[in-house]
Amino acid sequence: MKVSVVMPVYNGGKYLRAAIDSILNQSYTEFEFIIINDCSKDSTEDIIFSYDDSRIVYLKNEKNLGVARSLNRGLDSAKGQYIARLDADDIARPERLKIQVEYMDNHPEVDVLATSSQSFDEKGVLFEGHTSTDEDILKIDFLFSCGICHPTVMMRKSILEDKCLRYDNAFNKVEDYELWTRMLSMGCVIRSIDIILLDHRLHQNQVTSVYSEEMIQKLKKLHKRTLNELNISYTDNEFENFCNFCLSEASSDKTNYQMLCGLLEKILNSNKYNRKKMQRYCKGFAVRVLKDKDMSKQEKLNFCRSSSFLSFLDTIRYSFCK
Question: Which of 268, 259, 315 shows the shortest CA–CA distance to 289?
Fold first, then answer.
């Protein structure tokens, strides 16, 4: 068996048929389709039973386990060389498996392969989500947020077994981000191709449509782990500012930005990331601050004169020449 497609579902009857059809109609046919029903109370099971296709492997949880544990049950059951993910409300494009299998076959060094996606809602296409194809930039992206779209991913089963990797239920709802950062810390290779192979549905029932307090606390725990792995020192205020920035909630006052400058400088000097590319990221951050429409000219002037910003500029000065 070449590919195992793993898809958990909980009360997903409304969009489930479109998701199932998108896999069964793939141009690539050497796969098993593992569907894990997490104790759904709607029409989910009836929809699954309406298909007569030997490639479907149906697993039903005896009790509601949540996404992370349901995914792990799918991984444990998978017989494929590669694991492809799909959510029960998304649609895989017809060539998805074929393109990803060919890439993984030709790049044995890659452990996880993501793709770009297109998001849509009931009104139609909203936007395209393009991930970086530069491996170093992708690592930097993961420092601040989940750099790839989970249901686009194809993973190498052997790396999951060799390194005893599974989703961590303690990070349920952000289990994908936790797994990718853990894999990166182990030296695994995560890459993305800029081809749209998934239509990602947006709707009000999605768990991640808004940040809940539970999700925020789990993301903060992840960010703390990542910063600690860099062996850098930081204050509680620096950490809170960093988390707010990662959650796109940073305020526009100069003290906030000054603290961020100091922490970004420490991150850059940790030498965990490609220095030139991290410098360019920091350059983009500096430019964004100076373009902030909510800051007055005097605030920007005071910010530019601050010791933290001047030190920050000195650290990234070479990137301004590129």
Answer: 259
